[in-house]
Amino acid sequence: MSKIIRVLVAKPGLDGHDRGAKVIARALRDAGMEVIYTGLRQTPEQIVAAAIQEDVDVVGMSLLSGAHNYLFPRVVELLKEQGADDILVIGGGVIPDDDIPGLKEAGIAEIFTPGTTTTEMIEFIKNNIKDN
Amino acid sequence: MEWIKKMLEGDKRACAKLITAAENNPDEAEKIIREIHTHTGHAHVIGITGPPGAGKSTLTDKVVKSLVDEGKRVGIIAVDPTSPYSGGSILGDRIRMQDLALNPNVFIRSMGTRGYLGGLSKYTKNALKILDAAGYDYIIIETVGVGQSEVDIVKIADTILMVMVPGLGDDIQSIKAGIMEIGDIFVINKSDLFGADRTATEVNMMLDLTMDMERRPPVVKVVAVKNEGIDNLIREIKSHIQYLEESGQLEKRRKNNMKLEVVELIETELRKIVISHTDKDNKLDGRVAQVYSKEKNIYEVRDEFLKAIRKDN
Amino acid sequence: MLNNEELSKIKTARENWEEKVLNKTLEKSPESKEEFRSVSGATVERLYTPEDVAEIDYVEEIGYPGQYPFTRGCQPTMYRGKNWTMRMYAGFATAEESNERYKYLVSQGSTGLSVAFDLPTQIGYDSDHSLAQGEVGKVGVAIDSLKDMEILFDGIPLDKVSTSMTINAPAAVLLAMYIAVGEKQGVSADKLRGTIQNDILKEYIARGTYIFPTEPSMRLITNIFEYCSKEVPKWNTISISGYHIREAGSTAAQEVGFTLADGIAYVEAAIKAGLDVDTFAPRLSFFFNSHNDLFEEVAKFRAARRLWAKIMKERFHAKSEKSMMLKFHTQTAGCTLTAQQPDNNIIRVAMQALAAVLGGTQSLHTNSRDEALALPTTDSVTIALRTQQIIASETGVTNTIDPLAGSYFVEAKTKEIEDKAMEYISKIDDLGGAARAIDLGYIQKEISDSAYKYQMEIESLDRIVVGVNKYQVKEESPKGLLRVDPIVGEMQTKKIQDVKSARNNDAVKSRLEALRTACQGTENVMPFILDAVKEYATLGEICQVMRDVFGEYEQAVLL
């Protein structure tokens, strides 16, 4: 029996648009994953605390406000500080292509831009989480 | 196991890893529990159950904030239902506990029932033991609140809070008879809503009808979202703890629960033995065919298997 | 509308057609789908005939523009008198840069201003707050104090423009700043024209920029209604919004039902606060989405007008016709724009804008082609504005009022959406009203169910999105997108320091104390906010006082 994948779906920063995060949470649940949804207005500290206590395999962040260049890498930084850099970090939302290389360099494994299907996301997660 | 050492020192990540290991692998769980057993038994376990919409998570948030203000360390296990179709779940109780996420004295873990129907997960007990060993003074367990949520909470909690809300359906009917026996404290949440007094009266009436009560559970009105009535509730919780300790009930209940656990563990192993016999070469299928065609009766088949099992063991 | 004999003739003729003509074709080549559905998922029949509208009374239900029930429009002459206001939502980075964009838009023919604020401003935080990091100026302009507001409207005469401000939880503060800027320009408050969005319920439902819990938020809203009815009588004190509800994934009927349910909650709150319906109701306005399904959207707008008119008359016993009139602003649907092949978005927006005009909107914002990627560049926003101008000047659709009235399809759909929306309103009434329904998560769940269904239809190709799941091409990343320099955060922080050292800090302190006392009591807080604003108390300082007294909204609900 394969382990159930646990995913933290988080809304970092002040952005209040949660349509995407909720659709993804449902889709991941329908794909057999356990999804911990944090709700809105998460600081990077809150996201990391939750990721660690819930021992998730994936942290997925949804952000449409343009603050991704600051918030996403900060989460990766804090995860690293707390020895949790084996967690797969992914992001999505309104993120210009030009920002993606920088974000990947900062440790975000993949950025899912508008138009990505939930199926693609699920496949990516399954293929990229750390086996334990 | 190095995670255990770290957990005992207070490392939250280690604690989380152990809970995961115990959740995913029964052999790992056994190893862990064997090692940490001597460190358990200190935490007071509070179970919070009640129908969906009763505000259990908000109530948990307020109760824990109050306990933490007193300098206590609190662990929370919040259980949500796993989808029977996909095996996945959305665990959303953390949303109502935003401030607690960063408190160093708080640990919040969300669990899916993973198909188990008793209101908790099969692995909640192990998670609880790990949090206990990690030194949390209180551990709050929140059930899913649907179906037979009350069945399991009795087996692991010291103090059970039964949360109800006025106007959630027809109150008298929705108060299931069994609840009266297991609630240690009845909490009427959202008590600023119309009908709160009526609900309290109905609960008290049902309690009047319940026989054999050593202690009559109090009925406490709160408005969790406004933080009203929480101090009173905490007082009642502590009063219940005191009662349990002074009357010897705490030891009695815990020993009783351990008995149930031991028997359950034995049954699990025995079941494995039975299956190894019935499934071997599809023997059971063959025997059942004989029963169906009236060659044998069902008790003869039972005896055949029992004989073989006893011989092997 | 027709008598029985005529209807009977029509029915017979239809049956004849079905038998002799239609069925033959269906046998040879069946239709491409089992069922045809609108974008919202409502069934669309092959054909609509007088039979479908037989029950609708023209005079009672459809009527005449500018008269109850306003189905055909709010003004008797509609666009023949004056076009809708071309009001482009704009704002980013600093007040200086936004001021430039406003002047550009006005020079290019936009007829109203619309201010977009950044998230820290919308949530009552100054740009130097820890939670503002990375967010300053990103989705709108950063306003930390009256100083920024003065810069924002520098060279823009407030007696000559009407300004819509998309601000909700701290609306009172931004309105106070606008009034203060007007005063400095020598324009008295009674001359100011504009709108504040000020719709907190939809923040809890779909938009997320709430600050305080429900009760104090409703108090702030009714305080604003009361204050403006006396001091700023030309101001629209609320823009009850369906736009965001639709963006969050609702259907057209849900958009109308949930928005009007919110409207009902506001009217009830105002009445409870002692205001007379006919005093504040004429200043209520609405804000809707214009989505892809042209005919469904037109029907939706008409249904909303008729339903609100009935609610105001029958439920709230309004006496003045002005109280029953649903005036609205429209924005084309942002959620339909794609990152792939962004120029396609120009066409989408054009269709959606057309629907809004055919639906009789009072004011319109058209999205820009690059908005699935970033805030719009000057070029993109110009095309969006031109879209409106072309519709107004070149297509002829403004020559007559409510041109689609009488279409069997559109009238049938108008009735259908009205009925469905009313069902949602009744359900919400049963739950105890909109605020209660939000606490229970009913509205949010309906919306997220619709959103999930929509996404699954896209992934299964039941719903086509051109360029995304059909007609895809391999593309280069788009170039030249608008970027907000992160240095804006630092600049604003410095500005705040400058303001704080230049102002009279004692006066600020005493104004904030007076505000605190007012919040704790039952007085109207507007004058106190105005006093604080004029002393250059910052937005964050003022909102913190209110946070202290009112508390903060706690997220409760999940899916």
UniProtKB/TrEMBL annotation, chain A:
Cofactor or coenzyme needed: adenosylcob(III)alamin
CDD domains: MM_CoA_mut_B12_BD
Entry annotated with the keyword Metal-binding: yes
Record Pfam families: B12-binding
EC number: 5.4.99.2
SUPFAM superfamilies: Cobalamin (vitamin B12)-binding domain
Domain B12-binding: 4-132
PROSITE patterns xrefs: B12_BINDING
InterPro entries per record: Acid_CoA_mut_C, Cobalamin-bd, Cobalamin-bd_sf
GO function terms (MF aspect): cobalamin binding; metal ion binding; methylmalonyl-CoA mutase activity
UniProt keyword terms in alphabetical order: Cobalamin, Cobalt, Isomerase, Metal-binding
Protein's recorded name: Methylmalonyl-CoA mutase
Organism: bioreactor metagenome
Automatic annotation (TrEMBL), chain B:
The protein's Enzyme Commission number: 3.6.-.-
Keyword list, A-Z: Chaperone, GTP-binding, Hydrolase, Nucleotide-binding
GO molecular function, one term: GTPase activity
Residues annotated as domain AAA+ ATPase: 42-248
Broadest EC class assigned to this enzyme: hydrolase
Classification via Gene3D superfamilies: P-loop containing nucleotide triphosphate hydrolases
Family per similarity comment: Belongs to the SIMIBI class G3E GTPase family. ArgK/MeaB subfamily.
PANTHER family tied to this protein: LAO_AO TRANSPORT SYSTEM ATPASE, LYSINE/ARGININE/ORNITHINE TRANSPORT SYSTEM KINASE
Identification of the protein by name: Putative GTPase
Organism of derivation: bioreactor metagenome
Organism phylogeny: unclassified sequences, metagenomes, ecological metagenomes
Automatic annotation (TrEMBL), chain C:
EC number(s) reported in the record: 5.4.99.2
Domain Methylmalonyl-CoA mutase alpha/beta chain catalytic: 39-552
One MF annotation (Gene Ontology) recorded for this entry: cobalamin binding
Record keywords: Isomerase
Top-level enzyme category: isomerase
InterPro entries, A to Z: Cbl-dep_enz_cat (IPR016176), MeMalonylCoA_mutase_a/b_cat (IPR006099), MMCoA_mutase_a_cat (IPR006098)
PANTHER family for this protein: METHYLMALONYL-COA MUTASE, LARGE SUBUNIT, METHYLMALONYL-COA MUTASE, MITOCHONDRIAL-RELATED
Protein name: Methylmalonyl-CoA mutase
UniProt organism field: bioreactor metagenome
